[in-house]
Amino acid sequence: xxxxxxxxxxxxxxxxxxxxxxxxxxxxxxxxxxxxxxxxxxxxxxxxxxxxxxxxxxxxxxxxxxxxxxxxxxxxxxxxxxxxxxxxxxxxxxxxxxxxxxxxxxxxxxxxxxxxxxxxxxxxxx
Amino acid sequence: xxxxxxxxxxxxxxxxxxxxxxxxxxxxxxxxxxxxxxxxxxxxxxxxxxxxxxxxxxxxxxxxxxxxxxxxxxxxxxxxxxxxxxxxxxxxxxxxxxxxxxxxxxx
Lengths: 126, 107
Known about the structure:
Structural class of chain A: mainly beta
Largest sheet of chain A: 7 strands, mixed
Order of helices and strands of chain B: EEEEEEEEEEE
Shape of chain A: globular
Mean pLDDT of chain B: 97
Strand content of chain A: over 45%
Structural class of chain B: mainly beta
Order of helices and strands of chain A: EEEEEEEEEEE
Number of strands of chain B: 11
Oligomer: heterodimer
Number of helices of chain A: 0
């Protein structure tokens, strides 16, 4: 059973860059045709999809964050990472990594997020 | 971008009740709709994918239906462990988007 674990600084200063890593265990990040995603959730609020990576040159980002986001893959370490630049207090949230599973069915290719990491709180404050 | 709207935003129910949560997409998304359950301090857990397929290990009292723009999550015979917040999510196109959540509370 694949497991994901986020890690990184819990406190970032305004205007700096948030950097998080998601470590994948009990499975290879290269196995299967999976996308690897980042999702965030401000305290008491809903979920916001940040972006995903398939291979090192195949990424999709939320347009609302695209100018500030970079997601990268390190297959040698079985990890993928998130960088979010020029952060403000509005970027304070619990950040989750998640694998995008999928199934090919008659009606199309259906995707979903499972499993998820446990989440890590990042606070933007001076 | 596709907007997802859930109703109600909150719901009170008793153990044993049947509840239904609705999710509406701003455009047709066929059956590209997933449901998640989130408990406080925990990551969301996948319940239903492709509108009506039950994720392995999820109790059969959970079911999903719908296609196009209107979807429902139904929980029959509520159990104490079911009280949580539920989110729908469209996987039709990126940027993926979630509903605002429905908080299910004990009456």
